[in-house]
Write the structure tokens for this entry.
Amino acid sequence: MNCPICGSDDIEILNAKQKTTKKKLTEEYLLKCEDCGHVFKDVISLKKPRPYRLIISEQDKSHKTTIDLSPSDELKVGDNLITEFGQVEVTGIESGDKRVSKSKLEEVNTIWASSVEIPARIGFSVDLHGEVDSYKLDLDRDFEIAPGDIVKIDNHIVKVHVIKTQERKLTSGFAKAHVIKRVYSKPVKFNNYDYDLTKNIFKKTK
């Protein structure tokens, strides 16, 4: 939105309201230009909400449902939505016959999302020189793990070497649990450790 007097895009929204008719949905704004002080109105036409197919992952199970969204809006991976199953984060978007990171909703076929109201479940592998102990952990979604961390898990003290996230593998930096798929580690001969994840074990898978 630009000021019709001076052309500035430094605009303050004083008021906003929606109007619905049989044919269209509009948003009316009362605006003020921060540069010249001019107060004016603007109207944006929107398409009425329609249902979109939504698949919600909740750890080891999924829910198939629909959500009403306006085709005029844009959706991107990482957006949060409020659904009948609570708040979810968009993890995938199908537009046409391919997965995309963002799209106009009018071009979207299916939305994938994960619940943000339950702990993040991640995999944690301990390399025992040919054999692997593998665990499923339930962690706070914002819990941070970094390559180089010394961790106690079950009867092991290990060093984190690689973190596999939804998008890449990390050998430096850190990742929050809600984007981690699996952590890879190897035992070390230390008695001290940064933190203990034993109490977070949901199950040992091997």
Notes: The mean pLDDT is 90. Residues 33 and 46 are 24 Å apart (CA to CA). The radius of gyration is 24 Å. The chain has three domains: 11-46, 50-115, 120-204.
